[in-house]
Every structure is written in structure tokens, then in C-alpha cells.
Amino acid sequence: MKVVINGAGIAGTALAYWLGRLGHDVTLVERAPALRTGGFVVNLWGIGYDAVEYMGLLPTLLDMQHTADELRMVDRAGRTRGGYPSSVLLKLARGRMATLARSDIAATIYASLDGRVETRFDDSVAAVEDDGTRVQVHFEHAAPQEADLVIGADGLHSRVRHHVFGPDARFEYPMGCHVASFEVAGYRPRNGNAYVAYTAPGRYVARFPMRDDRMLFFVLLRDEHLAGGAPNDHAGRKATLIRALDGIGWESDAIASAIAQADDIYFDSISQIRMDTWFRGNVALIGDAAACPSLIAGEGAGFALAEAYVLAGELHRHGDDTGAALAAYQARLHAAVARKQKLAESLAASFVPRTALGVCLRDYTTLLMRLPVFPKLLMGRYFHDEATLPAYGL
Ligand SMILES: Cc1cc2nc3c(=O)[nH]c(=O)nc-3n(C[C@H](O)[C@H](O)[C@H](O)COP(=O)(O)OP(=O)(O)OC[C@H]3O[C@@H](n4cnc5c(N)ncnc54)[C@H](O)[C@@H]3O)c2cc1C
Predict the structure, then answer these.
(1) What's the gap in Å between 280 CA and the centre of ligand 1?
(2) Which atom of ligand 1 is nearest to the CA of 32?
């Protein structure tokens, strides 16, 4: 088959990997001029971990881990108020969890494509015309091309979804917060290998020590702290973050300097994408484009990897019957993803509490994670996937 995949993030590279390996003719199209670097770290467990194991990339990825020994919640004076060793989470994942830079996952998969896939950077699928048998694909820059299948793997704000399925507002469920992340070199203090987080009402800031003396910051802001709306350029992001974190306590001055130094700031709404159907004719969606669960669910990268594997597996199983393959792909995963989305929705309020009392209660509750039984009670549902990956023998 001729397949065009729009988006070379985790979902797009993973699908390109499988389809290339199965001998399909794949074009991977990425809007950015090169694979995106930097960005946040993600935890992989469950079916996402299984998927990288099927790809044979697990040993390489395990060598690239960024592991914090401890998750520490501090108060405005920097005193420890909650938290637990990260081994607790590893145990919940039965030892099968890896903490990786998002960009390292995509880059590792991309490197393994080994020239089997044509990649076109600095371009995007602009429009598709599906006559039910073949799809005419129009690009922003390249000449139009015919394909048997077009895949939108272009993330939360997917252009393919917008073009084929309808406007974002029909599928996007904003969760009332925005997230920012950025990295700087040489930030102090470093607190060894601890992930340290501080929450003021409506605002959460955490720092995560990376290799080469770099520090990664996560900021979560409830939307009421975005005076003037979400910024859409680098200077605006800096100004918004500095304003929102001004005077909140803990390391706010040092963090303001770090924001001022940051070369690149990721900033987006925390949203879910909920769709009843992930395909229409010969166009399908995977990853955040189809079913972003949001960072609150913490499994978007894992689902993207699992979706790529299952989509490739079902295409392989159903041969020429693409419609049956797409239906089987959705049937295998849709309910499990939807359930995780519901779980994330129920946890959204405790992620960034609105009041000082709410913050205190949340921080002290994390201490329970140090006791037996409580980790499973409090977070067991996070680590349980309702879907399993079939052995397609790809
Ligand atoms: C702060 C944070 C923490 C997270 N933590 C976790 C976690 O612990 N565990 C976990 O599993 N998940 C986590 N996630 C979620 C996870 O990162 C995403 O679900 C995952 O990266 C989705 O991959 P994707 O390939 O579908 O989309 P993306 O990673 O968004 O990739 C989409 C790609 O498409 C490209 N693109 C966009 N538009 C176009 C276009 N028009 N044309 C061509 N290309 C385009 C983009 O440049 C990008 O390369 C977290 C997310 C955030 C923000």
C-alpha cells in the first residue's frame, strides 16, 4: 500500500516503523524543519511499554532513561511536605516503566527506520480527496500524490482531523489548565536526583534533573491565571509564565530567571480529544490526533505507540480489506482509551487544586504512597490498561 502519514512525533514514527517493516510504501510528512528536540519527559508503562518491546527498541530506550529517585512536594519555604520514592511507581508498573524524553522516543524510532521510509520535513498534508478507493493527497509544498491510506498523526491540534472530521471544537475537551515546559542549564539548587514540585493555588511548578547539568521545568496553570489568554509566541510565553509565577514562593525568583533564559518553551492547553470514530473512508487518526488522553492520564505516548502497533497489525491481518482493518483497530483500543480519559477527568481537580487547603490535602495525601496497600488504592487504576496487545507476529 501507499500510505501517507502526517506528523513525525511518537505516533507517526512508530506507525512508519511498522508499515515500513511490512514492506508498505510510506511517506512521513512533518511540519517542522527537523524532528522536534527537547520538550518534556514521559513515563511509558503498560501497553506502550509492550509496544516498544515488540519493536525491539526497549534496550536502547532503557539506556536513555532520566530517572528521578524521588518525587518530593514542598511548601512555599521549600520544606518537604509530601512525596514518595519513585520505586513505588515502578512497583505499580510491575517493574515495566521507563522515563524518557518525548523527543528521544521519536528520534530512536526514526533512527531505526533505516531509510525504509521517505520523510518530508517542512511540509504538511493540506487537503485530501477520498473517492472511496484511492486518496488524492494535497500538500502545502510538494506536488499532490495518490495514496491508499492517509494517517493523521499530527497531534492534539491535528490538521488532518480538522480537514476530514471537522473543527477542533467538536472533539477537544479543555481541562481548564495549560501546561508549559522548558529546559535550562546549570539551575541551582538541584537536590540530587529528586523531582521537586511546589503548588500554589491554581499554579504548579516542578523541576526534574536531566543529564548534562540540565534542569527541566513543568508548569501547570489553571486558566484563570492566564491573564490575556494563551500566548502564541515565545516572548508572550515567557511574559505569561513570569507573571503567573510572580511571588508564589519557593524558588519563584530563580525560576523567573530560568524562564528568561529558556530558548524554547512548550506551551499548550491540557485537553482531551474524544471521538466516536477514528477513521473515515481511507483516512484514519492515531495518537493525540485521535484520542489525546491529556497529561493527567499520563499515557498519551504509550497509547500512541500501542495504536501504531495495533493499526499496523490489523492492516497486516486484513490484507486488502482496509475498512475491516480500521474498524478492528478502533474496536481493540477505543474503549480502553475512553476509560482512561474518564479517569483523568475525575483526577483533574486534584492535579492543580484551587485553594491552599486543597493543595495541603493533596500534598499530605501523597505521603500515604509510602505505606503498603495505599499505592495500589490511590494509583492502581492509572497503571492498569484494559486493553492488551495481540501478538500479530509482525
Ligand atoms: C507535559 C506533558 C507530560 C506528559 N507526560 C506523559 C507521560 O508521562 N506518559 C505518556 O505516555 N504521555 C505523556 N504525555 C503525552 C504525550 O507526550 C503525547 O500523548 C504524545 O507525545 C502524543 O504523540 P503524538 O505523536 O500523537 O503527537 P505529538 O507528539 O504531538 O506529535 C505530533 C507531530 O506532528 C507534527 N505536526 C503537527 N501538525 C502538523 C501538520 N499540520 N503537518 C505535519 N506535521 C504536523 C508535530 O510537529 C509533531 O512532530 C505528556 C504530555 C505533556 C504535554
Answers:
(1) 22
(2) 47
**Ligand 1 geometric centre to CA of 113 (Å):** 19
- Residue 119 Cβ inside 6 Å of ligand 1? The answer reads no
Residue 293 beta carbon below 6 angstroms from any ligand 1 atom: no
Domain 177-270 part of CATH 1.10.287.3510: no
| Best of 17, 30, 42 for a ligand 1 pocket test (most atoms within 8 Å of beta carbon) | 42
Closest ligand 1 atom to Cα of 181? 1
User: Would you say 267 and 180 are in contact if contact means Cβ atoms under 8 Å apart?
Assistant: yes
What's the count of helices (H) and strands (E) in the chain, helices before strands?
13, 18
pLDDT of residue 227: 81
Could you tell me which of 187, 173, 180 has the C-alpha nearest to residue 203?
A: 180
Query: Residue 228's pLDDT band (boundaries 50, 70, 90)?
Result: confident
Residue 98 and residue 65 in contact, taking contact as beta carbons nearer than 8 Å = yes
Cβ(27) to ligand 1 under 6 A?
Answer: no
Residue-wise pLDDT tens digits, 132-155: 999 999 999 999 999 999 999 999
Give the pLDDT score at 115.
Answer: 86
The C-alpha cell that represents 313 in the structure block? 497489525
Atom of ligand 1 nearest to the CA of 125: 42
- pLDDT per residue as tens digits for the range 320-350: 999 999 999 999 999 999 999 999 998 888 8
CA 4 – ligand 1 centroid, Å: 18
Amino acid at 299: E
pLDDT at 244: 96
Q: Is 195 in the pocket of ligand 1 (CB under 6 A)?
A: no
Rounded to an integer, what distance in angstroms lies between the CA atom of residue 187 and that of residue 84? 23
| Domain 2-66+98-171+272-348: which CATH number of 3.30.450.20, 1.10.760.10, 3.30.70.2570, 3.50.50.60 | 3.50.50.60
